[in-house]
UniProtKB/TrEMBL annotation, chain A:
Residues 80-189 form the EMC2 TPR-like domain. It is found in: Endoplasmic reticulum membrane. This is ER membrane protein complex subunit 2. Belongs to the EMC2 family. The keyword Endoplasmic reticulum applies. Part of the endoplasmic reticulum membrane protein complex (EMC) that enables the energy-independent insertion into endoplasmic reticulum membranes of newly synthesized membrane proteins. InterPro entries: EMC2-like, TPR-like_helical_dom_sf, TPR_EMC2. It comes from Lobosporangium transversale.
From TrEMBL, chain B:
It comes from the Eukaryota. This is ER membrane protein complex subunit 3. It is a multi-pass membrane protein. GO terms for biological process: protein folding in endoplasmic reticulum. GO terms for cellular component: EMC complex. It is found in: Membrane. PANTHER family: ER MEMBRANE PROTEIN COMPLEX SUBUNIT 3. Belongs to the EMC3 family. It comes from Lobosporangium transversale. InterPro entries: EMC3, EMC3/TMCO1. Keywords: Membrane, Transmembrane, Transmembrane helix. Residues 287-323 are annotated as: Disordered. Residues 287-314 have a biased composition (Low complexity).
Protein backbone atom coordinates (compact mmCIF):
# COMPACT_ATOMS: atom_id res chain seq x y z
CA UNK A 1 0.00 0.00 0.00
CA UNK A 2 2.85 2.32 0.87
CA UNK A 3 4.41 1.52 -2.47
CA UNK A 4 1.24 2.27 -4.39
CA UNK A 5 0.93 5.62 -2.63
CA UNK A 6 4.54 6.38 -3.49
CA UNK A 7 4.09 5.52 -7.16
CA UNK A 8 0.95 7.66 -7.31
CA UNK A 9 2.82 10.53 -5.69
CA UNK A 10 5.64 10.24 -8.23
CA UNK A 11 3.13 10.23 -11.06
CA UNK A 12 1.53 13.37 -9.62
CA UNK A 13 4.89 15.07 -9.33
CA UNK A 14 5.89 14.28 -12.92
CA UNK A 15 2.39 15.07 -14.24
CA UNK A 16 2.45 11.93 -16.35
CA UNK A 17 -0.88 10.78 -17.63
CA UNK A 18 -0.98 7.04 -17.10
CA UNK A 19 -4.62 6.40 -16.28
CA UNK A 20 -4.31 2.61 -16.48
CA UNK A 21 -1.54 2.54 -13.89
CA UNK A 22 -3.29 5.06 -11.65
CA UNK A 23 -6.56 3.15 -11.71
CA UNK A 24 -4.87 -0.20 -11.12
CA UNK A 25 -3.02 1.15 -8.09
CA UNK A 26 -5.62 3.60 -6.86
CA UNK A 27 -8.79 1.55 -7.16
CA UNK A 28 -7.98 -0.84 -4.29
CA UNK A 29 -6.82 2.11 -2.19
CA UNK A 30 -10.12 3.89 -2.65
CA UNK A 31 -12.30 0.82 -2.36
CA UNK A 32 -10.90 -0.62 0.86
CA UNK A 33 -10.58 2.80 2.45
CA UNK A 34 -6.82 2.53 2.85
CA UNK A 35 -6.52 5.91 1.16
CA UNK A 36 -7.73 7.61 4.35
CA UNK A 37 -4.50 6.62 6.06
CA UNK A 38 -2.61 8.99 3.78
CA UNK A 39 -3.92 12.03 5.69
CA UNK A 40 -3.62 15.16 3.63
CA UNK A 41 -2.39 13.29 0.56
CA UNK A 42 -5.63 11.30 0.48
CA UNK A 43 -7.53 14.10 -1.26
CA UNK A 44 -4.87 14.45 -3.92
CA UNK A 45 -5.09 10.70 -4.53
CA UNK A 46 -8.87 10.94 -4.80
CA UNK A 47 -8.55 13.68 -7.42
CA UNK A 48 -5.88 11.80 -9.34
CA UNK A 49 -7.84 8.55 -9.33
CA UNK A 50 -11.03 10.37 -10.32
CA UNK A 51 -9.41 11.86 -13.44
CA UNK A 52 -7.75 8.58 -14.33
CA UNK A 53 -11.04 6.72 -13.86
CA UNK A 54 -12.72 9.13 -16.27
CA UNK A 55 -9.89 8.48 -18.72
CA UNK A 56 -10.40 4.72 -18.67
CA UNK A 57 -14.20 4.98 -18.46
CA UNK A 58 -14.65 3.65 -14.92
CA UNK A 59 -17.50 6.00 -14.06
CA UNK A 60 -18.45 4.30 -10.80
CA UNK A 61 -14.97 4.76 -9.39
CA UNK A 62 -14.87 8.38 -10.54
CA UNK A 63 -18.23 9.03 -8.93
CA UNK A 64 -17.03 7.54 -5.67
CA UNK A 65 -13.89 9.70 -5.61
CA UNK A 66 -15.76 12.86 -6.52
CA UNK A 67 -18.37 12.20 -3.84
CA UNK A 68 -15.69 11.78 -1.21
CA UNK A 69 -14.12 15.05 -2.30
CA UNK A 70 -17.46 16.84 -2.36
CA UNK A 71 -18.14 15.80 1.20
CA UNK A 72 -14.79 17.10 2.33
CA UNK A 73 -14.71 20.32 0.29
CA UNK A 74 -18.28 21.37 -0.47
CA UNK A 75 -18.45 24.11 -3.07
CA UNK A 76 -14.77 23.95 -3.98
CA UNK A 77 -14.02 25.08 -7.53
CA UNK A 78 -11.53 22.28 -7.99
CA UNK A 79 -14.10 19.63 -7.09
CA UNK A 80 -16.73 21.27 -9.24
CA UNK A 81 -14.34 21.09 -12.14
CA UNK A 82 -14.03 17.33 -11.55
CA UNK A 83 -17.78 17.16 -11.57
CA UNK A 84 -17.78 19.00 -14.88
CA UNK A 85 -15.24 16.57 -16.28
CA UNK A 86 -17.48 13.69 -15.26
CA UNK A 87 -20.41 15.30 -17.08
CA UNK A 88 -18.16 15.72 -20.09
CA UNK A 89 -17.27 12.03 -19.94
CA UNK A 90 -20.97 11.19 -19.86
CA UNK A 91 -21.57 13.39 -22.88
CA UNK A 92 -23.50 16.10 -21.03
CA UNK A 93 -21.42 18.82 -22.62
CA UNK A 94 -23.83 21.69 -22.09
CA UNK A 95 -24.23 21.03 -18.38
CA UNK A 96 -20.48 20.72 -18.02
CA UNK A 97 -20.06 24.05 -19.80
CA UNK A 98 -22.43 25.67 -17.32
CA UNK A 99 -20.35 24.42 -14.41
CA UNK A 100 -17.17 25.86 -15.90
CA UNK A 101 -18.91 29.12 -16.63
CA UNK A 102 -20.08 29.38 -13.03
CA UNK A 103 -16.56 28.70 -11.73
CA UNK A 104 -15.11 31.36 -13.99
CA UNK A 105 -17.74 33.85 -12.93
CA UNK A 106 -16.67 33.45 -9.32
CA UNK A 107 -12.96 33.46 -10.04
CA UNK A 108 -11.94 34.61 -13.47
CA UNK A 109 -8.35 33.46 -12.95
CA UNK A 110 -9.26 29.80 -12.51
CA UNK A 111 -6.88 28.28 -15.03
CA UNK A 112 -8.22 24.74 -14.79
CA UNK A 113 -11.76 25.79 -15.64
CA UNK A 114 -10.59 28.06 -18.47
CA UNK A 115 -8.66 25.18 -20.00
CA UNK A 116 -11.59 22.80 -19.67
CA UNK A 117 -13.81 25.34 -21.39
CA UNK A 118 -11.50 25.43 -24.40
CA UNK A 119 -11.43 21.67 -24.65
CA UNK A 120 -15.18 21.55 -24.23
CA UNK A 121 -15.62 23.84 -27.21
CA UNK A 122 -13.26 21.66 -29.16
CA UNK A 123 -15.18 18.55 -28.20
CA UNK A 124 -18.42 20.23 -29.23
CA UNK A 125 -16.98 20.66 -32.70
CA UNK A 126 -16.67 24.44 -32.53
CA UNK A 127 -13.01 24.89 -33.44
CA UNK A 128 -13.22 28.61 -34.14
CA UNK A 129 -14.80 29.26 -30.73
CA UNK A 130 -12.18 27.05 -29.13
CA UNK A 131 -9.46 29.02 -30.90
CA UNK A 132 -10.76 32.38 -29.77
CA UNK A 133 -11.18 31.14 -26.19
CA UNK A 134 -7.66 29.72 -26.22
CA UNK A 135 -6.21 32.91 -27.69
CA UNK A 136 -7.84 34.85 -24.88
CA UNK A 137 -6.45 32.41 -22.35
CA UNK A 138 -2.93 32.59 -23.80
CA UNK A 139 -2.98 36.37 -23.85
CA UNK A 140 -3.04 36.15 -20.07
CA UNK A 141 -1.22 32.90 -19.37
CA UNK A 142 1.49 33.50 -21.90
CA UNK A 143 3.98 31.00 -20.43
CA UNK A 144 1.74 27.96 -20.78
CA UNK A 145 3.54 26.18 -23.61
CA UNK A 146 1.03 23.33 -23.61
CA UNK A 147 -1.66 25.87 -24.37
CA UNK A 148 0.35 27.11 -27.34
CA UNK A 149 0.78 23.52 -28.52
CA UNK A 150 -2.95 22.97 -28.28
CA UNK A 151 -3.56 26.16 -30.26
CA UNK A 152 -1.10 25.02 -32.92
CA UNK A 153 -3.04 21.75 -33.20
CA UNK A 154 -6.32 23.60 -33.53
CA UNK A 155 -4.89 25.82 -36.28
CA UNK A 156 -3.46 22.80 -38.05
CA UNK A 157 -6.88 21.19 -38.11
CA UNK A 158 -8.11 24.32 -39.88
CA UNK A 159 -5.09 24.15 -42.22
CA UNK A 160 -3.96 27.57 -40.99
CA UNK A 161 -0.27 26.83 -41.27
CA UNK A 162 1.22 30.26 -40.71
CA UNK A 163 -0.78 30.71 -37.48
CA UNK A 164 0.26 27.24 -36.36
CA UNK A 165 3.89 28.12 -37.17
CA UNK A 166 3.56 31.22 -35.00
CA UNK A 167 2.33 29.09 -32.09
CA UNK A 168 5.17 26.65 -32.53
CA UNK A 169 7.63 29.55 -32.47
CA UNK A 170 6.22 30.54 -29.09
CA UNK A 171 6.50 26.95 -27.88
CA UNK A 172 10.12 26.81 -29.02
CA UNK A 173 10.92 30.05 -27.19
CA UNK A 174 9.39 28.64 -24.02
CA UNK A 175 10.94 25.18 -24.36
CA UNK A 176 13.97 25.54 -26.61
CA UNK A 177 15.56 22.23 -25.63
CA UNK A 178 12.76 19.90 -26.69
CA UNK A 179 13.49 18.42 -30.11
CA UNK A 180 9.90 17.24 -30.58
CA UNK A 181 8.73 20.85 -30.75
CA UNK A 182 11.44 21.71 -33.25
CA UNK A 183 10.32 18.73 -35.31
CA UNK A 184 6.73 19.87 -35.32
CA UNK A 185 7.79 23.38 -36.33
CA UNK A 186 9.96 21.98 -39.10
CA UNK A 187 7.10 19.92 -40.46
CA UNK A 188 4.79 22.91 -40.45
CA UNK A 189 7.41 24.95 -42.31
CA UNK A 190 7.75 22.15 -44.84
CA UNK A 191 3.99 22.15 -45.37
CA UNK A 192 4.20 25.89 -45.90
CA UNK A 193 6.74 25.30 -48.66
CA UNK A 194 9.54 27.09 -46.80
CA UNK A 195 11.84 24.20 -47.57
CA UNK A 196 15.08 26.02 -46.76
CA UNK A 197 13.92 26.98 -43.29
CA UNK A 198 12.44 23.55 -42.73
CA UNK A 199 15.79 21.93 -43.60
CA UNK A 200 17.53 24.00 -40.96
CA UNK A 201 14.90 23.09 -38.38
CA UNK A 202 15.17 19.39 -39.25
CA UNK A 203 18.96 19.69 -38.85
CA UNK A 204 18.34 21.21 -35.43
CA UNK A 205 16.17 18.22 -34.50
CA UNK A 206 18.89 15.75 -35.41
CA UNK A 207 21.45 17.93 -33.65
CA UNK A 208 19.41 17.83 -30.45
CA UNK A 209 18.51 14.17 -30.70
CA UNK A 210 21.05 11.95 -32.40
CA UNK A 211 19.73 9.78 -35.26
CA UNK A 212 16.16 11.01 -34.87
CA UNK A 213 14.60 9.05 -37.72
CA UNK A 214 11.73 11.41 -38.42
CA UNK A 215 14.20 14.30 -38.45
CA UNK A 216 16.46 12.40 -40.85
CA UNK A 217 13.55 11.67 -43.18
CA UNK A 218 12.70 15.35 -43.06
CA UNK A 219 16.24 16.33 -43.99
CA UNK A 220 16.16 13.85 -46.85
CA UNK A 221 12.88 15.28 -48.15
CA UNK A 222 14.17 18.86 -47.99
CA UNK A 223 17.59 18.22 -49.52
CA UNK A 224 16.20 16.17 -52.40
CA UNK A 225 13.79 19.01 -53.08
CA UNK A 226 16.40 21.76 -52.81
CA UNK A 227 19.04 19.94 -54.85
CA UNK A 228 16.63 19.84 -57.78
CA UNK A 229 16.26 23.63 -57.71
CA UNK A 230 18.86 26.05 -58.99
CA UNK A 231 21.18 27.29 -56.23
CA UNK A 232 19.59 30.01 -54.15
CA UNK A 233 21.22 33.43 -54.08
CA UNK A 234 20.18 34.10 -50.49
CA UNK A 235 23.30 34.23 -48.33
CA UNK A 236 21.60 32.61 -45.33
CA UNK A 237 20.50 29.61 -47.38
CA UNK A 238 22.43 26.37 -47.21
CA UNK A 239 25.28 26.17 -49.71
CA UNK A 240 25.27 23.48 -52.41
CA UNK A 241 28.19 21.55 -50.88
CA UNK A 242 26.53 21.57 -47.49
CA UNK A 243 23.30 20.37 -49.05
CA UNK A 244 25.05 17.45 -50.70
CA UNK A 245 26.98 16.61 -47.54
CA UNK A 246 23.84 16.76 -45.39
CA UNK A 247 21.92 14.70 -47.93
CA UNK A 248 24.64 12.06 -47.85
CA UNK A 249 24.76 12.12 -44.08
CA UNK A 250 21.00 11.65 -43.75
CA UNK A 251 21.01 8.73 -46.19
CA UNK A 252 23.89 7.12 -44.38
CA UNK A 253 22.31 7.49 -40.95
CA UNK A 254 18.95 6.21 -42.16
CA UNK A 255 20.54 3.10 -43.69
CA UNK A 256 22.62 2.58 -40.57
CA UNK A 257 19.57 2.92 -38.34
CA UNK A 258 17.47 0.53 -40.39
CA UNK A 259 20.25 -2.07 -40.57
CA UNK A 260 19.22 -3.03 -37.09
CA UNK A 261 15.55 -3.33 -38.04
CA UNK A 262 13.82 -6.26 -39.71
CA UNK A 263 14.46 -6.84 -43.41
CA UNK A 264 10.94 -5.86 -44.52
CA UNK A 265 11.14 -2.43 -42.81
CA UNK A 266 14.61 -2.02 -44.20
CA UNK A 267 13.54 -2.69 -47.77
CA UNK A 268 10.71 -0.16 -47.45
CA UNK A 269 13.05 2.55 -46.27
CA UNK A 270 15.71 1.83 -48.90
CA UNK A 271 13.08 1.88 -51.61
CA UNK A 272 11.83 5.24 -50.33
CA UNK A 273 15.33 6.69 -50.33
CA UNK A 274 16.04 5.42 -53.81
CA UNK A 275 12.82 6.82 -55.19
CA UNK A 276 13.37 10.28 -53.79
CA UNK B 1 47.22 20.21 26.25
CA UNK B 2 48.22 20.30 29.90
CA UNK B 3 46.90 23.81 30.30
CA UNK B 4 43.66 22.71 28.70
CA UNK B 5 43.03 19.90 31.22
CA UNK B 6 43.91 22.25 34.05
CA UNK B 7 41.34 24.72 32.78
CA UNK B 8 38.82 21.94 32.41
CA UNK B 9 39.40 20.73 35.92
CA UNK B 10 39.31 24.18 37.35
CA UNK B 11 35.96 24.76 35.74
CA UNK B 12 34.42 21.48 36.78
CA UNK B 13 31.32 23.34 37.84
CA UNK B 14 28.39 21.37 39.01
CA UNK B 15 25.00 22.51 37.80
CA UNK B 16 22.01 21.99 39.99
CA UNK B 17 19.77 19.34 38.42
CA UNK B 18 16.87 21.64 39.24
CA UNK B 19 18.20 24.01 36.59
CA UNK B 20 17.80 21.25 34.05
CA UNK B 21 14.31 20.36 35.22
CA UNK B 22 12.95 23.83 35.77
CA UNK B 23 14.81 26.04 33.32
CA UNK B 24 16.47 24.16 30.47
CA UNK B 25 13.64 21.82 29.54
CA UNK B 26 10.82 24.33 30.18
CA UNK B 27 12.40 26.88 27.86
CA UNK B 28 12.60 24.31 25.13
CA UNK B 29 9.10 23.04 25.78
CA UNK B 30 7.65 26.54 25.77
CA UNK B 31 9.36 27.35 22.49
CA UNK B 32 8.05 24.20 20.83
CA UNK B 33 4.54 24.83 22.10
CA UNK B 34 4.58 28.46 21.07
CA UNK B 35 5.76 27.39 17.63
CA UNK B 36 2.88 24.94 17.29
CA UNK B 37 0.32 27.47 18.51
CA UNK B 38 1.73 30.06 16.14
CA UNK B 39 1.35 27.66 13.27
CA UNK B 40 -2.28 27.07 14.11
CA UNK B 41 -3.05 30.75 14.59
CA UNK B 42 -1.38 31.63 11.30
CA UNK B 43 -3.50 29.04 9.53
CA UNK B 44 -6.55 30.59 11.16
CA UNK B 45 -5.58 34.14 10.30
CA UNK B 46 -4.64 33.44 6.73
CA UNK B 47 -8.11 32.40 5.73
CA UNK B 48 -8.82 31.78 2.08
CA UNK B 49 -6.09 32.93 -0.29
CA UNK B 50 -6.75 36.29 -1.84
CA UNK B 51 -8.15 36.05 -5.32
CA UNK B 52 -5.65 36.98 -7.94
CA UNK B 53 -6.56 39.68 -10.35
CA UNK B 54 -6.71 38.70 -13.99
CA UNK B 55 -5.26 41.97 -15.16
CA UNK B 56 -2.29 41.96 -12.85
CA UNK B 57 -1.53 38.40 -13.92
CA UNK B 58 -1.55 39.58 -17.50
CA UNK B 59 0.72 42.46 -16.58
CA UNK B 60 3.38 40.18 -15.11
CA UNK B 61 3.13 37.65 -17.90
CA UNK B 62 3.39 40.47 -20.45
CA UNK B 63 6.70 41.51 -18.98
CA UNK B 64 7.85 37.90 -19.09
CA UNK B 65 7.06 37.88 -22.77
CA UNK B 66 9.72 40.51 -23.28
CA UNK B 67 12.36 38.77 -21.25
CA UNK B 68 11.67 35.41 -22.89
CA UNK B 69 12.01 36.97 -26.31
CA UNK B 70 15.34 38.46 -25.28
CA UNK B 71 16.59 35.19 -23.79
CA UNK B 72 15.41 32.70 -26.39
CA UNK B 73 14.71 34.83 -29.45
CA UNK B 74 17.79 33.42 -31.16
CA UNK B 75 15.99 30.14 -31.64
CA UNK B 76 13.60 31.81 -34.08
CA UNK B 77 14.20 32.73 -37.69
CA UNK B 78 14.88 36.38 -38.26
CA UNK B 79 11.46 37.35 -39.59
CA UNK B 80 9.68 35.77 -36.63
CA UNK B 81 11.96 37.52 -34.18
CA UNK B 82 11.57 40.90 -35.85
CA UNK B 83 7.80 40.61 -35.94
CA UNK B 84 7.68 39.89 -32.22
CA UNK B 85 10.17 42.64 -31.47
CA UNK B 86 8.11 45.17 -33.36
CA UNK B 87 4.90 44.04 -31.72
CA UNK B 88 6.24 44.01 -28.18
CA UNK B 89 8.05 47.34 -28.39
CA UNK B 90 4.88 48.96 -29.61
CA UNK B 91 2.69 47.23 -27.04
CA UNK B 92 5.03 48.13 -24.20
CA UNK B 93 5.28 51.71 -25.36
CA UNK B 94 1.52 52.04 -25.49
CA UNK B 95 1.01 50.12 -22.29
CA UNK B 96 -1.25 47.48 -23.81
CA UNK B 97 -0.39 45.08 -21.03
CA UNK B 98 -0.92 47.57 -18.23
CA UNK B 99 -3.72 46.95 -15.79
CA UNK B 100 -5.13 50.29 -16.75
CA UNK B 101 -3.76 51.28 -20.17
CA UNK B 102 -5.16 54.79 -20.01
CA UNK B 103 -3.55 55.68 -16.71
CA UNK B 104 -0.16 55.01 -18.34
CA UNK B 105 1.70 58.22 -17.72
CA UNK B 106 -0.32 59.72 -14.94
CA UNK B 107 1.44 59.89 -11.61
CA UNK B 108 0.06 57.55 -9.01
CA UNK B 109 -2.25 58.98 -6.41
CA UNK B 110 -1.91 58.27 -2.75
CA UNK B 111 -0.93 54.61 -2.45
CA UNK B 112 -2.91 54.31 0.75
CA UNK B 113 -6.08 54.68 -1.25
CA UNK B 114 -5.33 51.60 -3.30
CA UNK B 115 -7.27 48.84 -1.53
CA UNK B 116 -5.08 46.05 -2.91
CA UNK B 117 -1.99 47.78 -1.58
CA UNK B 118 -3.46 48.36 1.86
CA UNK B 119 -4.55 44.75 2.03
CA UNK B 120 -1.07 43.46 1.25
CA UNK B 121 0.34 45.80 3.86
CA UNK B 122 -2.11 44.52 6.44
CA UNK B 123 -1.26 40.92 5.62
CA UNK B 124 2.40 41.66 6.09
CA UNK B 125 1.74 43.44 9.37
CA UNK B 126 -0.34 40.55 10.66
CA UNK B 127 2.38 38.07 9.84
CA UNK B 128 5.03 40.21 11.44
CA UNK B 129 2.95 40.63 14.56
CA UNK B 130 2.56 36.87 14.75
CA UNK B 131 6.31 36.64 14.72
CA UNK B 132 7.41 39.50 16.91
CA UNK B 133 4.93 39.30 19.76
CA UNK B 134 5.53 35.74 20.98
CA UNK B 135 9.28 35.96 20.52
CA UNK B 136 9.45 39.21 22.49
CA UNK B 137 7.36 37.73 25.26
CA UNK B 138 9.52 34.61 25.54
CA UNK B 139 12.70 36.63 25.51
CA UNK B 140 11.35 38.95 28.18
CA UNK B 141 10.32 35.96 30.27
CA UNK B 142 13.78 34.44 30.05
CA UNK B 143 15.49 37.73 30.74
CA UNK B 144 13.31 38.41 33.72
CA UNK B 145 13.49 35.06 35.48
CA UNK B 146 16.63 33.36 34.28
CA UNK B 147 19.10 36.08 33.35
CA UNK B 148 22.64 35.03 34.13
CA UNK B 149 21.80 31.33 34.40
CA UNK B 150 24.25 28.78 33.08
CA UNK B 151 22.11 26.00 31.73
CA UNK B 152 24.17 23.42 29.97
CA UNK B 153 27.68 22.45 29.06
CA UNK B 154 28.40 21.47 25.51
CA UNK B 155 30.32 18.17 25.35
CA UNK B 156 32.97 19.61 23.04
CA UNK B 157 35.47 22.46 23.27
CA UNK B 158 34.98 25.63 21.26
CA UNK B 159 37.13 28.61 20.42
CA UNK B 160 36.81 31.92 22.20
CA UNK B 161 34.89 33.49 19.34
CA UNK B 162 31.79 31.53 20.25
CA UNK B 163 31.71 33.26 23.62
CA UNK B 164 29.42 36.04 22.48
CA UNK B 165 27.12 33.50 20.89
CA UNK B 166 26.93 30.99 23.71
CA UNK B 167 27.26 33.16 26.79
CA UNK B 168 25.05 36.06 26.03
CA UNK B 169 23.91 37.71 29.22
CA UNK B 170 26.88 36.53 31.30
CA UNK B 171 29.73 38.94 31.54
CA UNK B 172 32.59 36.72 32.69
CA UNK B 173 35.82 36.58 30.80
CA UNK B 174 37.30 33.42 32.18
CA UNK B 175 34.50 30.91 31.94
CA UNK B 176 35.04 28.14 29.42
CA UNK B 177 33.19 28.73 26.17
CA UNK B 178 31.30 25.45 26.22
CA UNK B 179 29.00 26.66 28.99
CA UNK B 180 25.74 27.97 27.56
CA UNK B 181 23.76 30.78 29.13
CA UNK B 182 19.97 30.93 29.30
CA UNK B 183 19.58 33.65 26.69
CA UNK B 184 21.90 31.82 24.30
CA UNK B 185 19.92 28.63 24.87
CA UNK B 186 16.89 30.59 23.72
CA UNK B 187 18.63 31.62 20.53
CA UNK B 188 19.93 28.12 19.88
CA UNK B 189 16.37 26.87 20.18
CA UNK B 190 14.98 29.64 18.02
CA UNK B 191 17.13 28.63 15.11
CA UNK B 192 17.49 24.94 15.85
CA UNK B 193 13.90 23.82 16.33
CA UNK B 194 13.23 24.03 12.61
CA UNK B 195 13.45 20.30 11.97
CA UNK B 196 11.46 19.50 15.11
CA UNK B 197 8.61 21.60 13.75
CA UNK B 198 8.85 19.88 10.40
CA UNK B 199 8.52 16.60 12.27
CA UNK B 200 5.46 17.71 14.22
CA UNK B 201 3.66 19.88 11.69
CA UNK B 202 4.84 18.54 8.36
CA UNK B 203 6.69 20.60 5.80
CA UNK B 204 5.47 24.06 4.90
CA UNK B 205 4.56 24.91 8.47
CA UNK B 206 4.22 28.49 9.67
CA UNK B 207 6.27 28.10 12.86
CA UNK B 208 9.46 28.68 10.97
CA UNK B 209 11.48 31.42 12.63
CA UNK B 210 13.94 31.77 9.79
CA UNK B 211 11.24 32.39 7.25
CA UNK B 212 9.80 35.07 9.45
CA UNK B 213 13.20 36.73 9.59
CA UNK B 214 13.08 36.91 5.82
CA UNK B 215 9.53 38.15 5.94
CA UNK B 216 10.68 40.90 8.23
CA UNK B 217 13.40 42.06 5.88
CA UNK B 218 10.96 42.24 2.99
CA UNK B 219 8.18 43.73 5.00
CA UNK B 220 4.78 43.88 3.40
CA UNK B 221 5.86 41.84 0.40
CA UNK B 222 2.73 40.11 -0.77
CA UNK B 223 2.36 36.98 -2.89
CA UNK B 224 3.20 37.16 -6.56
CA UNK B 225 -0.40 37.90 -7.43
CA UNK B 226 -0.41 41.11 -5.43
CA UNK B 227 0.60 44.45 -6.81
CA UNK B 228 4.24 44.75 -7.73
CA UNK B 229 6.27 46.24 -4.92
CA UNK B 230 9.73 47.62 -4.84
CA UNK B 231 11.95 46.61 -1.90
CA UNK B 232 10.96 49.80 -0.16
CA UNK B 233 7.34 48.67 -0.08
CA UNK B 234 6.07 51.26 -2.56
CA UNK B 235 4.09 49.98 -5.50
CA UNK B 236 6.13 50.44 -8.64
CA UNK B 237 5.11 52.33 -11.68
CA UNK B 238 4.54 49.46 -14.08
CA UNK B 239 4.59 51.71 -17.09
CA UNK B 240 8.18 52.66 -16.33
CA UNK B 241 9.13 49.00 -16.01
CA UNK B 242 7.51 48.28 -19.35
CA UNK B 243 9.34 51.18 -20.95
CA UNK B 244 12.70 49.95 -19.70
CA UNK B 245 11.85 46.45 -20.91
CA UNK B 246 11.00 47.96 -24.27
CA UNK B 247 14.43 49.59 -24.38
CA UNK B 248 16.03 46.26 -23.55
CA UNK B 249 14.18 44.59 -26.39
CA UNK B 250 15.16 47.30 -28.80
CA UNK B 251 18.79 46.78 -27.91
CA UNK B 252 18.60 43.04 -28.44
CA UNK B 253 20.28 41.92 -31.61
CA UNK B 254 19.09 38.83 -33.34
CA UNK B 255 21.62 36.17 -34.15
CA UNK B 256 19.91 33.13 -35.48
CA UNK B 257 20.99 29.96 -33.75
CA UNK B 258 20.48 27.92 -36.90
CA UNK B 259 22.76 29.94 -39.16
CA UNK B 260 25.38 27.24 -39.32
CA UNK B 261 23.35 24.31 -38.11
CA UNK B 262 24.28 22.21 -41.16
CA UNK B 263 27.97 22.62 -40.41
CA UNK B 264 27.37 21.85 -36.75
CA UNK B 265 25.49 18.70 -37.69
CA UNK B 266 28.23 17.57 -40.05
CA UNK B 267 30.80 18.22 -37.33
CA UNK B 268 28.70 16.27 -34.85
CA UNK B 269 28.77 13.20 -37.06
CA UNK B 270 32.48 13.65 -37.74
CA UNK B 271 32.07 14.57 -41.42
CA UNK B 272 33.87 17.86 -40.91
CA UNK B 273 36.72 18.72 -38.53
CA UNK B 274 35.73 20.49 -35.33
CA UNK B 275 38.13 23.31 -36.16
CA UNK B 276 35.79 24.55 -38.89
CA UNK B 277 33.33 25.82 -36.28
CA UNK B 278 36.09 27.79 -34.54
CA UNK B 279 37.13 29.29 -37.87
CA UNK B 280 33.57 30.34 -38.56
CA UNK B 281 33.29 31.97 -35.18
CA UNK B 282 36.50 33.91 -35.78
CA UNK B 283 35.34 35.08 -39.16
CA UNK B 284 32.08 36.27 -37.69
CA UNK B 285 33.80 38.09 -34.83
CA UNK B 286 36.02 39.88 -37.33
CA UNK B 287 33.01 40.85 -39.41
CA UNK B 288 31.11 42.32 -36.46
CA UNK B 289 34.05 44.25 -35.02
CA UNK B 290 34.80 45.87 -38.39
CA UNK B 291 31.20 46.89 -38.89
CA UNK B 292 31.22 48.62 -35.53
CA UNK B 293 30.32 47.53 -32.03
CA UNK B 294 27.15 45.49 -31.83
CA UNK B 295 24.37 47.17 -29.95
CA UNK B 296 23.68 44.11 -27.87
CA UNK B 297 26.96 44.62 -26.03
CA UNK B 298 25.82 48.03 -24.91
CA UNK B 299 23.62 47.70 -21.92
CA UNK B 300 23.45 51.41 -21.27
CA UNK B 301 22.75 54.01 -23.88
CA UNK B 302 24.73 56.82 -22.32
CA UNK B 303 26.94 58.69 -24.79
CA UNK B 304 30.05 58.04 -22.74
CA UNK B 305 29.55 54.27 -22.93
CA UNK B 306 29.03 54.45 -26.68
CA UNK B 307 32.19 56.46 -27.13
CA UNK B 308 34.17 54.06 -24.96
CA UNK B 309 32.91 51.05 -26.88
CA UNK B 310 33.69 52.71 -30.18
CA UNK B 311 37.19 53.45 -28.98
CA UNK B 312 37.62 49.85 -27.89
CA UNK B 313 36.46 48.58 -31.26
CA UNK B 314 38.86 50.95 -32.98
CA UNK B 315 41.68 49.65 -30.84
CA UNK B 316 40.83 46.10 -31.79
CA UNK B 317 40.90 46.96 -35.45
CA UNK B 318 44.30 48.58 -35.12
CA UNK B 319 45.62 45.59 -33.26
CA UNK B 320 44.53 43.29 -36.03
CA UNK B 321 46.13 45.40 -38.69
CA UNK B 322 49.41 45.39 -36.84
CA UNK B 323 49.23 41.64 -36.46
Amino acid sequence: MVNAAKVLQDLRASAERKPDVVVRLGKPLVENGAVKKLDADAWLVYEQVAIAALDVGDDALAQRCIQALEQKFPGSARVRRLHGMKLEAEGELIQAGEIYKAILQEDETNILAAKRQVMLLRAMGLPSDAISALVKYLDINYTDFEGWLQLADLYLEQLMYSQAAFCMEEVIMLQPQNHIFHLKYAEILYSQQSIGLALKQFCRVVELCKDHVRGLYGIKLCTSHLLKLSPSKDSTATSQEDLKAIDLLATERLIATYNAASSSTKSVSTKWIENL
Amino acid sequence: MGAWTVLQERQAMLLDPAIRDWVLLPIMLVMVLVGVVRHQVTVLLNGPPRKADLKSARETKGLQRGSILRAHGNHLPEYAFEARKAYLTEAFEKGTYLKDPKAGNKPKGNVMQDPAYVETMMDGMKKNMMNIVPQTVIMGWINFFFSGFVLIKLPFPLTIRFKSMLQRGIETQDMDVSWVSSLSWYFLNLFGLQSVFTLILGSGHAADAMRDMQAMSTMGMGPAAGPQMSPTGQPQDMHKIFLSEKENIELTEHEWGLNNVETRLLVKYGKLPRSILVDQKKAKAAATSVSGPSTSSLSSSSPAAVAAAAAAAGGKKKGRRQA
